[in-house]
Structure formats: structure tokens, C-alpha cells
Amino acid sequence: MTKQRNIILKPIGVIHNDVEDSRDASFDWSPVISNIELDERYTLYTHGIDQHSHLLILFWMDRPEKKQLQPLVYPRGDKSLGKAGLFATRSPHRPNPVGLKLAELIEVHGNVLIVKGLDALNNTPVIDIKPYLPGYDSPI
Amino acid sequence: MTKQRNIILKPIGVIHNDVEDSRDASFDWSPVISNIELDERYTLYTHGIDQHSHLLILFWMDRPEKKQLQPLVYPRGDKSLGKAGLFATRSPHRPNPVGLKLAELIEVHGNVLIVKGLDALNNTPVIDIKPYLPGYDSPI
User: Fold this and answer.
1) Which residue of A has its CA nearest to B102?
2) Residue B138 counted as domain residue
3) Is A113 in a helix, a strand, or coil?
4) How many structural domains does chain A have?
5) Which residues does chain B have within 8 Å of residue A105's beta carbon, measured at their own beta carbons?
6) Which residues fall within 8 angstroms of residue A15, CB to CB, at 6 or more apart?
7) Nearest CA to CA, how far is A119 from chain B (Å)?
């Protein structure tokens, strides 16, 4: 493999909600409402985003407990299934802890997006916002 | 908004295929076969991933033409629809050009994943591999 250089990202905003602490795998995030506050320079970047019912939110999972990466983990912490390779799971303890979650877009107020179902803790940095496109983001 | 620090990612591998140059929006990526060569240290991380028919591939779009970010762009380059805010499109010219594509998993050979439908150029760095989970990654 060719030598790969580091990649530098700049957060574009921050997530606000009332979930302050890490939750176990049984926690139901589906009703959680989050305000995604983008940097004001990105206000125009959300123009027309309300034509999409769902968004894909990329965020930086900066608060998993600091622990060494494990190649094999229990999916969703469920020990009945046996361990799987980390890339076969959605564990937050990843080489690059970029979170990805589909969320329902509720309202847009300029640089603030109100979404439902995002599974990120309060104050999580946001990396990117993409519209969910059914024909592109789901298996044919 | 609170001041956000830079985030540093390390590529976990590289994409190999026969698409060398940027393609226009009409290019059909769906039949393109790519080999995702992960760093050998991640071989065990793919254990059991063949239980998933589709993967979400996160990659670094390191070869869009260098041009200034535009807050408003034509979705898929289609001028008939009018401009939309960048975050309402999948344009690769983003503040953080992280690509996200659902791809069909064809074969696994240790640290090499063979996938179909990934829309990344040859030699694109890979950031993360996640299993596609139908109940989690699609609207209810």
C-alpha cells in the first residue's frame, strides 16, 4: 500500500441535544431531537435542504472512552452473537471515529438544522451534512 | 458556536479501480468494481464482514479540481433545476470532502474487499468501512 498522509478536517458546526453521557446499546435514540448549529459562514449552504426529508449527518465521535482499538468486538455489545471484526460493526471505537447517522429533518432556521434520531452526544463536532437520496443511498 | 479544533484522520487503506480521471455527472459508476486494499494491520478487522451484502464506504475525495467553495451549486451539474445550497447536494467540493457511498460487497480476501458501485477514483484514500444495516441506515 502506498504511504498515506494524514487528513485534516475542520468541524463545520456542533450538535446540541440533551444527551450528555455515553449510552449503552439499548438506549433508544429515535425520539432524540438535536439542533445542528453550523458555523454562520455556512448559512447559505443549507438553501433548499428542506426539500429532503432525511439527512446523513457525519460527525466526530470525540467521546468514546479512551481505550485501545480492538480488532474484534461484540456487535452492539451483544455477547450472544460472538465477536465480529470492527469494520463489520458500528462500534464508535474505530481507527477514524467518524459517526454516520440518517436523521429526519424537522425544521431549518438558517444555519440551524433541527433533526430527529441523530445518535450523537451533546456538543459533538459536525463534519458534513449530506441529503439522503433514496436511489443512491439504499440498495437497488 | 464554540471554537472547534482540527480533526486528524489517518487513511486505513486505498481504493483500486480503473477509473483514473474525474467523470461528469452522467458517468455510470454502478458496474465499476473496486478493490479496497486496507492496511495489513486491519486484516482481522474485516472478520465476518461477508455477512453483510452492502457496505458504506467513507473515503477522502482528494482530487476534485482545486476551486473555491461555492455555497450554491447545481445538483448533479443539472442546470435545469436551479442552484441549491452545497449541503443540499452531494457535490464533492465540500468544506470536508468526505465521500460516502453504499457499495455491494462481492468478495473478501483478508485485508482486500472487492465491491461494486463505489464512485471513487483509483488511488482514493479510505477513511472507514461500515456495514449497511437496513433498519438503521434507511428511513423507517
Assistant:
1) A137
2) no
3) strand
4) 1
5) none
6) A34, A35, A36, A37, A57, A59, A118, A120, A121, A122, A123, A124, A125, A126
7) 11
Q: Is residue B25 part of a domain?
A: yes
Q: Does residue A75 form part of some domain?
A: no
What count of other Cβ atoms lies within 10 Å of the Cβ of residue B72? 15
Distance from CA of B34 to the nearest CA of A (A): 15
Q: ipTM beyond 0.90?
A: yes
Q: pLDDT tens digits for A23-75?
A: 777 889 999 999 999 999 999 999 999 999 999 999 999 876 667 899 999 98
Residues of A in contact with B90 (CB under 8 A): 130-131, 133, 136
Per the model's pLDDT, the better-predicted residue between B109 and B5 turns out to be B109
Domain of residue B25: give its range.
13-62+97-133
CA distance B11 to chain A (A): 6
